Amino acid sequence: MNYQGTTYSYNQRSEILIPTRRGTSYYGPQNHKPLIAYQGVTTDFEFYVTDTNRKPVSIENKTFTAKIIDRTTKVAVITRTLTPLDYAQGSLLMRLTEDNVASLSPALYDVTITYTDSESQTFGLYTDQNFRLTYVLEVKENIGTTINESITIDRLPGGISDKYPGTAQTRNSDGTNTAAVYLTNYTGKVFVDATLETDPAERDWFPIIINPDQDDKFWTFTNTTGIEAFTWDGMYMWVRFRFENDVANTGTLDKILYRA
Q1: How far apart are CA 21 and CA 6, in angstroms?
Q2: What is the CATH number of domain 12-144?
């Protein structure tokens, strides 16, 4: 069976209105769509400076500045100088990098744009014919690009590890757990225990199935050298690892990498 999907490349574009005529009849945009930025990716926003007849306005000798304002504190959290793309057509670019967006929590923000002319005078700009000064920027969490750091477990005193945060704590919405076991000529079994308790006692731990092909709650190794990886699904509060050496074992379990 073939599966197909379609992806889209959108340019987020908005007009900036500079009133250039008197009277009550305006042809500027009546409103604007919210700007959207996702955490974990770089996003470009294009702005077109127009007059009240929606004709391009030259941006020669003008410096345009955008401020992203936290709606709760009313403080500008990011200030960006817009990059001219086409002076005659009044085209400007605002780029928010991964690092910029990482500093913002998922929420709604206000965006104001001003320009400074050759005489160092600063003017406000409007988003639409209703003379609104602010755009709406929505910052969204991008689950698909959020990759948690792996935890390195290189000491298992007594054959059992410490407890580590599971997917219930790492905001991993699909519940996928991944582990990689590093071995040198190792013979024995590796177990994964989990718990739903926030402060577990020993009786609160239970083994989970990590070898679904055999419906086993352990992974068996025989004179294995290298890296063996396995995954399992489940929303667990904590996870820990155990191992049991076979009596014939002459090797070592060197470390485990775990990601929830």
Answers
A1: 45
A2: 2.60.40.3350
CATH of 147-259, one of 2.60.40, 3.30.310, 2.160.20, 2.60.120: 2.60.120
* Model pLDDT for residues 59-77, shown as the tens digit of each residue: 999 999 999 999 989 999 9
Q: How far apart are CA 39 and CA 247, in angstroms?
A: 50
Q: Copy the structure tokens of residue 66.
A: 């955008």
Residue 146 in tokens: 């959020």
End-to-end CA distance of the chain: 31
Quick check: 253 and 156 in contact, CB under 8 A?
yes
Tokens describing residue 173? 């919405």
Query: Helix, strand, or coil here: 14?
Result: strand
10 Å CB burial of residue 249 (0-12, 13-18, 19+) is middle
Bridge partners, residue 137, by sequence: 35, 109
For the chain, which residues make up each domain, given as ranges?
12-144, 147-259
| Average pLDDT of the residues in 20-30 | 52
84-136 residue pLDDT tens: 999 999 999 999 988 888 888 888 999 999 999 888 999 888 776 666 778 89
DSSP secondary structure letters along 63-80: EEEEEEEETTT--EEEEE
Backbone angles phi, psi at 98, to 5 degrees: -55, -45
Q: How many CB atoms lie within 10 A of CB 244?
A: 12
- Min mean pLDDT across 26-35, 136-145, 149-158, 232-241 is at 26-35
Strand partners, 188: 221, 245
Residue 20 has pLDDT above 70, yes or no: no
